[in-house]
């Protein structure tokens, strides 16, 4: 939370202040403090922006005529005996923006707050926010956009935010070729679709690079980057997931799930070679998948995605949510299965509501998504 110091004047025994800006984050709990030396039997009122200067609370009671969604989030806290009548707004929403006035019953205003929820990043042009990574160790927020990466220091955020920007323009030859069959924007740009942490000071990024996907390894210390072999998605609207998982041979190794030029699969580098473990390119393995997330669990890696179901009537074109699994020890088979997953399995993602009298009730969320 961020506050600005303001000057106050003593007027008729009350502390009368100018408007106090308050920049907060949506979804947090906001406390607006108001202290009165003596109210001499008069009640304290809080008025807010709903329908312009509506009564929110009087003394320690909130206005029951407010909409339930607002009334249930407003509380008057503090030591009332000593004149502390603080307004707390829980789960603050964009609709809560505006002026809040603390006053005594006769109308003398004690404090006025201007509550806002400013954006960390703003742009007059289409920026296509693609991926967000928050790193608590580095105290940084990384935002992947079209043709650039924004880095915001979280240890001391001051508005307006001035992020550090690293440009990732598409390679010119790839751009020239891409525009022959696609629109320049957004398809023939370099959308940073994925960011993950490789080590304490290194990130792996994936960019679409004008329909010729490319990976990058970024040194966060000096902000330099080099090419990295990452089989990313080439389409700016295809989802991609990857993670570093513990390797049975020690260290960590990266697993990818992506779609590149209509071929969708899960991949993992084969140590000591330039080859990858891959899945069989077949609609039975996955059809038009949109990958959501990946997780390292013991000796397996799980990939969550949604896809077009092939076990239903093709005319219906139903979307199912899936979870797929590959084993870390999988080295493939012989002949046609060389460097192909032999441990690959997938299942429809089902949830249940526990039943008390009847059986458990199945619940299916068939459009699993990121965030």
TrEMBL record:
Gene Ontology CC annotation, any one: plasma membrane
Sema domain location: 101-371
Short name of one Pfam family: V-set
PROSITE patterns named in the record: IG_LIKE, SEMA
Signal peptide: 1-18
Keywords: Signal
Molecular functions (GO terms): chemorepellent activity; semaphorin receptor binding
Ig-like domain span: 26-107
GO biological process, one term: positive regulation of cell migration
Superkingdom of source: Eukaryota
InterPro entries recorded: Ig-like_dom, Ig-like_dom_sf, Ig-like_fold, Ig_sub, Ig_V-set, Semap_dom, Semap_dom_sf, Semaphorin
Family: Belongs to the semaphorin family.
Protein name stated in the entry: Semaphorin 6
Organism: Mytilus galloprovincialis (Mediterranean mussel)
